[in-house]
Specification:
Elements (H helix, E strand, L loop, with lengths): L1 H7 L1 H4 L26 E3 L2 E8 L7 H8 L2 H4 L2 E7 L7 H5 L4 E5 H9 L4 E6 L7 E4 L14 E3 L7 H12 L9 E3 L6 H7 L4 E4 L2 H9 L3 E5 L3 H8 L7 E6 H6 L1 H20 L2 H8 L10 H12 L10 H13 L9 H4 L3 H9 L5
Helix pairs in contact: 1-7, 3-12, 6-15, 12-17, 13-14
Length: about 350
């Protein structure tokens, strides 16, 4: 198990993937604003800045809080800024933004480094990764022996580590038995068609669909509870999160409460909404999404129960995050849950809605 942990550790960091934050691929066009604006009043609404490394479906509750008008109900207007070539948590720590969409490992590392922050909301509860084979002849992990498997853009990414962890779980040496290589996901289909690629890791539902359309088959589904349990020791893993600084919690808890109220309302709406309704409400913030992409993501999310409709974390998911981040070298200590999470705002939000969790 330790070997598997060690191989998967950077899964968290991807996120700068998923988010960790953020290894998920952007679903739409976003714009960078190198000088994130301070909170300011716009009409009767107070503007808040929410930063992200990528625009990704799995942070849907934060986006829906804006498009459904829940931020406005709380007197807020959210501006989402995609930070290209930097870390989305930096503007939050400097006070130029109020919240960021990242992964659990970010909060773990920042807190150990003395840069206090808290996870306010967890927006997912499962991994959306899939290890896929190029065709039926590559439908098992063992069939990838001696073959080429794409693991994302870099060797320290979540997809790359996920590929290695899957290979190791089958009793093979991921450094010698399989050629795990780096490649942009946009090149997967062509490489499969040419026969130069026999496996690849998809990081979101739409990219998995693109591979399936090219004839690929699913070998390992990261949303499968038993599969993930065997790899990280937990069937749940609250990877995607909304983070703020300790400084903002201390200086303006009312603002934090309003933001969490809005996101909780969006989660409640999302739980009973149809995939079609979710896709429609997200569309204004995903202008660059391909036709059918958001609907496909929403349908997959519902079918595989990826979304977190309460916003809370699990103890096992937290411990898995600590183990992965520690083994990756991101942290050395053993933080407690209350050092990483502040879910008191969630408690207040659900109580106000008459749905105490």
């Amino acid at each position: 198990m330790k070997k598997l942990f060690a191989l998967l550790l950077t899964l968290s960091f991807a996120l700068g993937l998923l988010a960790g934050c953020g290894s998920t691929e952007p679903a739409g066009d976003t714009q960078e604003d190198s000088s994130a604006a301070q909170t300011e009043t716009s009409g009767d609404l107070k503007k808040i800045v929410i930063t992200e490394d990528v625009r990704g479906y799995h942070w849907a509750p934060a986006y829906l809080a804006q498009t459904l008008g829940y931020f406005a109900e709380e007197g807020l207007d959210a501006e989402f800024q995609t930070i290209k070539g930097g870390d989305a948590s930096a503007p939050v720590l400097s006070g130029d933004a109020q919240f960021c969409l990242k992964g659990i490992e970010t909060a773990l590392m920042l807190n150990e480094a003395g840069q206090g922050c808290k996870i306010l909301v967890s927006t997912t509860q499962k991994y959306p990764y899939q290890l896929m084979g190029a065709g039926e002849e590559y439908s098992t992990i063992e069939s990838l022996r001696g073959q080429v498997v794409a693991g994302g853009l870099s060797t320290n990414s979540g997809p790359y580590s996920f590929a290695k962890a899957c290979i190791s779980s089958a009793g093979m040496d991921p450094d010698s038995d399989v050629n795990v290589t780096t490649m942009a996901s946009s090149g997967y289909a062509a490489a499969i068609a040419s026969g130069s690629l026999q496996g690849a890791v998809s990081t979101n539902p739409w990219s998995a669909k693109m591979l399936s359309d090219a004839g690929a088959v699913v070998i390992v589904d990261g949303t499968d509870a038993d599969v993930i349990q065997g790899i990280i020791g937990s069937s749940s893993y609250e990877l995607f999160t909304v983070i703020t600084s300790d400084a903002l919690i201390q200086s303006d808890p009312e603002l934090v409460q309003k933001a969490v109220n809005a996101i909780a309302k969006a989660m409640k709406w999302m739980e009973t909404a149809t995939p079609e309704e979710i896709a429609e409400q997200l569309s204004t913030l995903f202008d660059g999404a391909q036709e059918g992409e958001l609907l496909y993501d929403a349908q997959y999310d519902k079918e595989h129960q990826v979304a977190n409709y309460t916003g809370y974390h699990t103890a096992s998911g937290f411990q898995a995050g600590v183990n992965l981040t520690k083994l990756a070298g991101g942290i050395t200590g053993d933080p407690t849950e209350d050092q990483i999470y502040d879910e008191s705002f969630l408690d207040n939000a659900w109580q106000a809605m008459g749905n105490a969790q």
